[in-house]
Amino acid sequence: MSSTTGEDPNGNNGEVQKSEECHSNLISTFLTFSSLIFSNVRDNFAAAQLCFDILLCVSEDNYANAFMHDENQVFPVFIYRTKLRHRKDNKKDLTAMSLAYTLLDLTSEFLMTNLTKNFPFELYSKCFRVIHRILCYQKKCRVRLTYPWPTLWNSIISAVKWSNSLKLDDPEIISNYIQVGRIFNMFVMYGDTFLPNPGSYDELYYELLRQHGVFDSLNETGSNTLRKAIHIKNPARNYCLIYTTSVL
Asked: Are 127 and 49 in contact (CB under 8 A)?
């Protein structure tokens, strides 16, 4: 938003504030609200579903994506974070960043702080879909967002490692693994179009090799599920193909 000259509500002429001087907008306010809901999903499950549905709509809209990725449109978004022993505060520091940066932070926080045994996996699926849509926009428009990508990768891998350790025969889990395969597929095959620098690729492969046990376990899970559903249409078929492509 460029600066323009106009008349303020009090009738005084002056320069309208630039976007970086604004305290908030509708999307930033909604991200703050979503972070509050995600910090206690167990008591706000319906609201969490609604928040993710709205984020899915926002993340697939080209105009909203263009606004969120505009580096000239930065906002200090207030983010609530779940209280953890190794963190002294449950709030994110107020630093003016692009809204896409804040949205990825919000998804990473959700993945890392909701690892409970009875957690509904459908919310994880929606979270992965939001991430995937953001990456699709960055790939399409070649937007190189300056973001600490290892934070996101570790959050996704930690969520997958936890869910795989439960050994549950739930189709929703397999669906989540498909989403994870697609996300890492994007990074491996098209990361050169949106990762900020070549060093990010080195970090990506380092994390994939460091966490190879998680992906080996995923491969075994997908293979076992595929053998069980050999005569039934099952997402595990696609999962095995996507996962194999993502690690090659």
From this structure: no
Q: Using pLDDT thresholds of 50, 70 and 90, give the confidence band for residue 183.
A: very high
Q: How does DSSP assign 59-87, residue by residue?
A: HT-HHHHHHHH-TT-EEE---B----TT-
Q: Rounded to 5 degrees, what are φ and ψ at 119?
A: -75, 135
Q: Which residues neighbour 142 within 8 Å (Cβ) at sequence distance 6 or greater?
A: 193, 194
Q: Which two tokens stand for residue 203?
A: 């970090």
Question: What would the DSSP string read from start to end of 141-192?
Answer: HT------HHHHHHHHHHHHHHHHHTT---HHHHHHHHHHHHHHHHHHHHGG
* CA nearest neighbour of 57 among 4, 133, 117: 133
How many Cβ atoms are within 10 Å of 31's Cβ, its own excluded? 24
pTM: 0.79
pLDDT in tens, 167-181: 666 667 778 888 888
SS3 100: helix
